[in-house]
Amino acid sequence: MRAVGIIDSGAAPDLPGEARAFDADGAGHAALPDRLGHGTAVARTILRACPTVRLVHAQVFDARPVTSALRVAAALDWLAGRGDVGLVCLSLGLSADRTVLAEAVARAQAAGLVLVAAHPARGPAPWPAAYPGVIAGTGDARCGWDALSRLGPRLFGAWCNSPEHGGTGMGGASLGTARLAGHVAAIMADGADTSAAALDVLALRARHHGAERKTA
Question: Which residues of this protein are catalytic (predicted)?
Answer without folding.
Answer: 8, 38, 174
